[in-house]
Write a structure and sequence with these properties.
alpha/beta; Rossmann fold; 2 domains; 5-stranded mixed barrel; two-stranded antiparallel ribbon; about 30% helix; about 20% strand; binds 1-O-phosphono-alpha-D-ribofuranose; binds guanine; Nucleoside_phosphorylase_d
Length: about 350
Amino acid sequence: MTGYNSNGDVATSNANGHQNGHNGSSNNNGNRQLTADYTAQENHTNNINSQEKIQCYLSTEELRALRVMNEDTYPYEVIQEIADFIVKGSNMRPKIGIICGSGLGSLADIIQDAKVFEYEKIPNFPVSTVEGHAGKLVVGNLEGAVVMAMQGRFHFYEGYPLAKCSMPVRVMKLCGVEYLFATNAAGGINPKYSVGDIMLMHDHVNMLGFAGNSPLQGPNDPRFGPRFPALVNSYNKELINKALEIGKQMGIEANMHVGVYSCLGGPTYETIAELKALRMMGVDAVGMSTVHEVITARHCDMKVFAFSLITNKCATEYSDKKDDEANHDEVMAVAKNRQKACCELVARLIRQIQASS
Ligand SMILES: O=P(O)(O)O[C@H]1O[C@H](CO)[C@@H](O)[C@H]1O
Ligand SMILES: Nc1nc2[nH]cnc2c(=O)[nH]1
């Protein structure tokens, strides 16, 4: 059920009167607090009487997320306002946009002369609710280029519609961004991949698209791009080749692959049968993000470079071993261990883009 607190924020509870969200566990900011009282509208199974006041423990971020989730689509003008806010507030016009994957937020820490915007202070911006996604937009200089980096992306499983998950890519476009660098943590399905490897994305299988869901659903605004965009050649070959060359220079070519990523809705990790099916479809790595961002970026004609950090090996055979189960702590730990290599790859590639422009 849904109710509203005194600030007009939306708060929800399930049939047992417990709040929806994270089952009482702490969110990424750890500042869970009493944020709302609301009047229960009906009897609950735990005998809370009708009209009795109950307390709702959602963090301020979660309440704001719920409110933003319930907003409708983002028209061009609203996205323009957000872009103007960022360009004016930073006094910079970025050329490269970076989306940091789970545990890869340090990609934004290497940005110099940074102007940092917390998502909750950006008008009409969603907020991050996942651990490992700090919820900050960082604008500044990296290897001679002005970049804007999202320390925290939005996922479908957080409750945001896909168009909202990838709305920041359009903000990037209207800020002046020409290149999207999207990174993610992913499970390796290709048996040749090891934990810690980097897979440069050269294609994707859009499972959410198979199910009839797209960030471009709804009326098309031609100021962003065409109604029916083509997606072959979505991943810029020149940038992939440059990254492979950089991998050699860094001495990590044995841990680098070029492969196919697939995005599932999450938040569950995959079953063995699903992983087998994905492998049969030619998928090398699986996650819960990136594809809708790439679609949105290609729709508005941005050049795309994307890679997956393989944070866990996906089991494709049945076994009783607990080790076979993916978990987010492991994902974060591997990302932390490999963040230096990921940062270096991104920095060197940006240096090359700058050198050749
Ligand atoms: O894709 P990113 O944001 O890197 O995160 C990946 O890791 C999380 C699961 O551990 C999911 O959010 C999945 O999408
Ligand atoms: N769907 C999915 N997302 C991930 N993110 C990191 N690892 C995984 C995984 O194994 N599956």
